[in-house]
């Protein structure tokens, strides 16, 4: 055996199998005459009939065939197929909306079914697998979600009866405000924790006692459940706001943005301080010795060597903190901090899953975007990785 | 000129360097050798005040180093280390230009100097100037390290096992280049190594250290011929010492003018070492060799008797 056989790719094989089963067995969409009445579920086979539904499975079957010997060319083919399937996903909903929703009923709404969500999930996993097989990084990797998002956007016009869209229609203003509130809270908390975290990390470098104490406190903060922390902040903040007029004037009270901000800050500090501290401590001692040996002063070594070399790891901390804060801010809606979480809790209260989605989907998107952007930034700043193939100038 | 007088350094209870005295003359390459942990690096780093000495005096060009500001002193002294310590986030050109920029040279002069040094160390500018250290081989990175140490044209160069992490072939290539560079630049160099062959190949003066003390110092030949004790003898290679001596003696030093006798077939180049001459004899089953010049023209001859017999006092047959 001298020829190297491209191996069977179990991930793609398994995912396309599961996707096919999901597609054929689970409901693709549900239709309800209005928001109150529970909808009736329709599978793809109900909707399209067996022959068409099976025909729609062909790309998945092709993926299974490709995965049996996934060399580079087939990998590209498979990637194209997965992309096409992903781009076509809203199309199924559009068809369902055309065929199932009675135009006489303006209140009628289309719910997205399990088969649709799961297909999205399986296809995304396949996309990630193929992307890493092909070692796509940088702009080419970023292009994939952009292509899919654009395709979805273009199909948006046919989806008027989608329950998600109808929930949004009623609250366009609220939605925008919630997005802005969410972003402000996350941005503010991450920004403040970056500044404060850097200061704490610097103080820790001065003495081991400060270091031990600092990590003890931050670790403890991290163990308090988020709701409990909000609760703990309620009383002292309310008291402070009552004591100092200027505090209440800028909106500080036991509930609202102030306790949410403080709690987010508390949770963000640990990852921020830990990463900054590790980053600053773990700069190659040989590089630092050379820097001093060349006659650089302490400040020069810190600014020109230690800090820039630590930066990728610090940004990594910002990434973790940001993704975490985007999620936590959803919980903060419970204490009236606003943000997208308020849709989630309203939706849960009214058992309106589409309203929950209206809050959850943008949160998911924000987290993914923040993760991708900050991850890319950290990689860009890390010159040690330039040694990898394709990194030449 | 570097002078150490009774210099001692302690780390806590441990005495890393114990009252050593040492003079390195201008233009001399002094190699510090000894087993790991014997205080070589500590000695080196006291000279540029990366570490402050506890006792004794260190003078550079007649002035005690404590009179200088540490940073300014270090900018005047080249420093190259085993791990290269190149800044991974800076390009090769920027790394090399570090000290000149610290000295506030105008940008144009820095660029000129960087290009000059890259030429000197065999790093084509168009190919290497914009690379990052991660994109260099070990040997290339070490060249950049040496170029950086030479950038501000210091009189003194401190090198701490600069070739220690390289494969033997690359290492020997760089040793040859350093010897060549040194014959042109005539820096005062203190060179730390635990590789005795490297020390013998490069040093004008060899300093053998053991547990913070200097056991013996002198020219490589002097040490090879008369090691002070068993430790120095074994460090110098035990019974291999003879071959090591042959390896640092050139054929030209022992060859005799052409005699009327028939010229032997086996030949050796004038610039080869006696060790290489012995290898040729062994391979060719010959006890006489013709010595040739660059054009392969015979210019003398060398006999086995001449190689081994004349070794003791240099008079031999005449
Ligand atoms: N910064 C330091 N702190 C404590 N001990 C040190 C330090 N630097 C070196 N030493 C000790 O001093 C001794 C000599 O070290 P070094 O000069 O690095 O040896 P060498 O370079 O000859 O291998 C060793 O025992 C080492 O452990
Ligand atoms: Mg050492």
Automatic annotation (TrEMBL), chain A:
Entry keyword annotation includes Repressor: no
Gene3D superfamilies the UniProt entry points to: MetI-like (1.10.3720.10)
InterPro entries the UniProt entry points to: ABC_transp_perm/SBD, MetI-like, MetI-like_sf
Domain of life: Bacteria
Any one biological process term the GO annotation gives: transmembrane transport
Localization (cell): Cell membrane
SUPFAM superfamilies (alphabetical): MetI-like
GO cellular component, one term: plasma membrane
Keywords assigned: Membrane, Transmembrane, Transmembrane helix, Transport
Membrane topology (UniProt): Multi-pass membrane protein
Pfam families named among the record's database cross-references: BPD_transp_1 (PF00528)
Keyword Nucleotide-binding: no
Listed transmembrane segments: 47-66, 78-100, 112-130, 142-163, 183-204, 216-240, 246-270, 325-349, 355-378
Segments forming domain ABC transmembrane type-1: 179-374
PROSITE patterns for this protein: ABC_TM1
Family: Belongs to the binding-protein-dependent transport system permease family.
PANTHER family: GLYCINE BETAINE UPTAKE SYSTEM PERMEASE PROTEIN YEHY (PTHR30177:SF30), GLYCINE BETAINE/L-PROLINE TRANSPORT SYSTEM PERMEASE PROTEIN PROW (PTHR30177)
Protein name: Osmoprotectant transport system permease protein
Organism: Halomonas shengliensis
Automatic annotation (TrEMBL), chain B:
Domain ABC transporter: 2-236
Swiss-Prot/TrEMBL keywords: ATP-binding, CBS domain, Nucleotide-binding, Transport
Listed SMART domains: AAA
InterPro entries attached to this UniProt entry: AAA+_ATPase (IPR003593), ABC_transporter-like_ATP-bd (IPR003439), ABC_transporter-like_CS (IPR017871), CBS_dom (IPR000644), CBS_dom_sf (IPR046342), P-loop_NTPase (IPR027417)
Gene Ontology MF: a single term: ATP hydrolysis activity
Source organism, top-level taxon: Bacteria
Alphabetical list of PROSITE patterns matching this protein: ABC_TRANSPORTER_1, ABC_TRANSPORTER_2, CBS
The CBS domain, residue ranges: 258-318
Name of the molecule in the record: Osmoprotectant transport system ATP-binding protein
GO terms, biological process: quaternary ammonium group transport
Family from the record: Belongs to the ABC transporter superfamily.
Organism: Halomonas shengliensis
């Amino acid at each position: 055996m001298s020829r190297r056989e491209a191996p069977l790719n179990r991930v793609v094989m398994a995912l396309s199998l599961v996707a096919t089963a999901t597609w054929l067995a689970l409901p693709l969409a549900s239709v309800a005459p209005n928001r109150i009445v529970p909808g009736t579920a329709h599978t793809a086979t109900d909707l399209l009939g067996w022959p068409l539904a099976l025909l729609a499975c062909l790309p998945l079957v092709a993926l299974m065939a490709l995965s049996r010997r996934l060399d580079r060319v087939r990998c590209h083919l498979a990637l194209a197929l997965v992309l096409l399937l992903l781009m076509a996903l809203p199309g199924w909903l559009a068809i369902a909306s055309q065929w199932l929703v009675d135009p006489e009923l303006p209140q009628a709404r289309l719910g997205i079914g399990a088969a649709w969500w799961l297909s999205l999930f399986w296809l995304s996993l396949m996309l990630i697998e193929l992307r890493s097989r092909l070692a796509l990084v940088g702009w080419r990797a970023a292009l994939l979600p952009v292509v899919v998002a654009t395709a979805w956007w273009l199909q948006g016009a046919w989806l008027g009866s989608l329950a998600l869209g109808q929930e949004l229609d009623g609250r366009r203003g609220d939605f925008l405000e919630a997005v802005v509130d969410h972003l402000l809270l996350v941005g503010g908390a991450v920004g403040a924790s970056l500044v404060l975290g850097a200061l704490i990390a610097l103080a820790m470098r001065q003495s081991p006692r400060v270091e031990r104490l600092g990590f003890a406190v931050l670790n403890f903060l991290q163990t308090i459940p988020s709701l409990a922390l909000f609760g703990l902040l309620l009383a002292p903040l309310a008291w402070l706001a009552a004591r100092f007029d200027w505090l209440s004037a800028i909106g500080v009270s036991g509930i609202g943005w102030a306790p949410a901000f403080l709690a987010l800050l508390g949770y963000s500090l640990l990852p921020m301080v830990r990463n900054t501290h590790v980053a600053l401590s773990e700069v190659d001692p040989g590089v630092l010795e050379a820097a001093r040996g060349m006659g650089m002063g302490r400040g020069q070594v810190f600014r020109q060597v230690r800090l820039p070399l630590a930066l990728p790891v610090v940004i990594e901390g910002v990434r973790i903190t940001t993704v975490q804060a985007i999620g936590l801010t959803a919980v903060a809606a419970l204490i009236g901090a606003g943000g997208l979480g308020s849709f989630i809790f309203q939706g849960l209260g009214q058992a309106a899953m589409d309203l929950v989605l209206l809050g959850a989907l943008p949160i998911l998107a924000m987290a993914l975007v923040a993760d991708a952007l900050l991850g890319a930034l950290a990689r860009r700043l890390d010159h040690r990785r330039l040694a990898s193939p394709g990194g030449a100038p | 000129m570097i002078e150490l007088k009774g210099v001692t350094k302690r780390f806590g209870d441990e005495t890393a360097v114990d009252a050593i005295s040492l003079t390195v003359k201008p233009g001399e390459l002094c190699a510090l050798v000894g087993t790991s942990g014997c205080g070589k690096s500590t000695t080196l780093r006291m000279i540029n005040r990366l570490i402050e000495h506890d006792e004794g005096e260190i003078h550079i060009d007649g002035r005690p180093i404590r009179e200088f500001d540490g940073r300014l002193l270090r900018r005047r002294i080249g420093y190259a280390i085993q791990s290269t310590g190149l800044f991974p986030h800076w390009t090769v050109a920027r790394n090399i230009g570090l000290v000149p920029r610290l000295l506030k040279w105008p940008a144009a002069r820095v660029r000129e100097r960087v290009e000059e040094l890259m030429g000197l160390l065999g790093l084509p500018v168009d190919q290497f100037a914009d690379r990052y250290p991660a994109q260099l081989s070990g040997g290339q990175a070490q060249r950049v390290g040496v170029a950086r140490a030479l950038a501000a044209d210091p009189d003194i160069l401190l090198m701490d096992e600069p070739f220690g992490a390289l494969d033997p072939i690359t290492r020997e290539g760089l040793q040859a280049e350093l010897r060549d560079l040194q014959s042109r630049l005539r820096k005062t160099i203190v060179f730390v190594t635990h590789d005795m062959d490297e020390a013998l190949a490069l040093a004008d003066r060899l300093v053998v250290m053991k547990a913070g003390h200097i056991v013996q110092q002198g020219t490589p030949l002097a040490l090879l011929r008369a090691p002070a004790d068993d430790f120095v003898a074994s460090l110098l290679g035990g019974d291999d010492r003879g071959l090591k001596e042959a390896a640092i003696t050139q054929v030209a030093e022992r060859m005799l003018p052409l005699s009327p006798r028939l010229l032997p077939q086996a030949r050796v180049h004038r610039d080869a070492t006696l060790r290489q001459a012995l290898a040729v004899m062994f391979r060719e089953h010959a006890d006489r060799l013709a010595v040739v010049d660059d054009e392969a023209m015979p210019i003398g001859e060398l006999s086995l008797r001449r190689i081994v017999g004349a070794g003791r006092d240099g008079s031999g047959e005449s």
